[in-house]
Amino acid sequence: MAKRVAVIDIGSNSLRMVIYEKTSRFAFHILHEAKSRVRISQNAYQNGGNLQEASMQRAYDALENFLSIIASFKARKTLCVATSALRDAPNQKEFLNRVKNGLGLNIKVIDGQRESYLGAIACANLLPEQQNALCIDIGGGSTEFALINKKNILKNLSLNLGTVRLKELFFDLNDIDGAKEYIDKELSVLEGMDASVMIGIGGTFRAISAALLTKSNYPLDKLHAYKPSYDDFEEFLEKILSSDDDNLKKLGIKSSRFDVIKSGALILLQVFKKFKIKELLSSGVGVREGVFLTDLLRTSKDRFPLNYNTSVRYILDSHVQNLSYANQISKVAKELFDLSANKLNLDKKYRYELSIASKLCMSGNSIHFYSNNKHSYELIQDALEFGFTHEQITLIATLARFSKRKLPSSSHIERLGSLLPDEGQLNALSYLLSLSVALLSHMPRNIDFKLSFKDNTIEVESKNSLYLARESVEKLEPLKNSSLQVKFL
Fold this sequence. Notes:
This protein is an alpha/beta fold. It has helices at 53-72, 84-88, 92-103, 112-126, 163-169, 176-187, 203-215, 230-241, 245-251, 258-274, 287-296, 310-319, 323-340, 350-360, 372-383, 390-401, 410-416, 423-439, 467-474, and strands spanning 4-10, 15-22, 28-36, 77-82, 108-109, 133-138, 143-149, 152-159, 197-200, 279-282, 450-454, 457-461, 485-488.
């Protein structure tokens, strides 16, 4: 696979382009992203699904600019897919040929089943693992559904429900009852599907999640894997349906979505009524990521290897300059956790987060050595994007931030407390990571000491002096409300 790959997604409402760069076999990050709201399906549904000339020209012009951007990044491969608007259009070949002959771009029109699969693959691979989750992607012309259990896609399908389609067929005529009847008829094929978690992909779900996140003073500025309150979300949908443009603006909805947000909100409300959803999860990934992943993972059945996380690997590839040292810190931290977890009343589930924080705690060195802990914290918060809950991201970033001498500050805990473990467990985890870094101050080629636990004391045995380690351990802030000691033998 090429190191740089561009993906273009031609939707009914918007054209989107992303350029990905691989940093190792399965690790990647985004180099550039562009979006144009060309509304290629505008007035199509009122005209037998036929694409209109003005819409096709807007899309052509946007694609021409996208290809210029792709060329500037020297991407070696471009994957372009089109969804509902083109697959429904009787005159699709006119547009496909115009783009191929004029721009040299081959567009692959995918069916609804493939579209729903691509969105589901992105969610299954790039969100925290979910059980019994319904994935919903509301587009301009269609809505895709998929039932996901852990990494398995149990069922996926596409329905002729979309924000632009409903706007032109019903909302422009003020026929809301007709829209509800149409939606419910389409949703009837979902009988027998059961889910307790809903994963929202499309622009409607993201727009509402973003508004709720902003208004709630949520401590983490990250939409991917955000869990909005079900009750708040449902209430917000009702407010949207009864709002004029001024009130939509007050609700935090962008003006570019004013004309389609109500039809999207109605689709979601009718889906809510059909399923007993208990939890909502916002996805920052969808069809584009699915297209990229099915290419990246084509030799591994569209899944990452077991226990592999692409975001962790990307940070290690790009920002950790001494991988051997990072792995040593992780190894020592896990050993200290295993020795002292019972004594410190640590939940065993935090061993994983401690391990990841240990590997990444020096990543900020790549930005600025003298403020590396601060930069490690910010880098982890931003770049630890895929496969983690917000609680995990916040804990890993916090442990990295305070991995030298001091325990997490009270102001830090107060600001992010809703996403962190209780203070006792947080301090214990922080101390174990700082102790691991201190014990390896001399950066040995191989770990040159043995650890044991006896009488509330971590014992460190070595044939070497460990002079720097002894000095560093003495400087650590003592663990609060604990008689834990460190003794060099």
